[in-house]
Amino acid sequence: MHKILNVALIAHDKKKDTLVSFCIAYESILAKYGLYATGTTGKRIMAETNLDIHRLASGPLGGDQQIGSLIVNKDIDLVIFLRDPLTAQAHEPDIQALIRLCDVYSVPIATNLASAEIFIKALNDGELNWRLD
Ligand SMILES: O=C(CO)COP(=O)(O)O
What's the pTM value of the predicted model, to 2 decimals? Predict the structure, then answer.
């Protein structure tokens, strides 16, 4: 299908600092994978790391749906989506649709830092390499 695993990185505004810190901490691991992000998240990560990111539209402008489309095409192998559970989002239906597609296609999705740390270690240990066939 594809030669490297692809990771989607997304964070709501109040979680962007956390995701940037995560990307700095795990930069050497993340650098080995194809990276996709919603617009503002990708801009922040690229400004604060040396990671190369395929940036999509901003979440509220359809970026979550673009990630969803990549999932349907089997081009995303892991989603790290640090959601803000305490702030209403105008594009909540898009967020739910993205999470639903992860379930439809069995794509692992971490929605908080604790699970993101476990998943990135699993990725680095080759636990997701079965997705490469
Ligand atoms: O809103 C988002 C995800 O639902 C993230 O979008 P941005 O990365 O453009 O802020």
Answer: 0.97
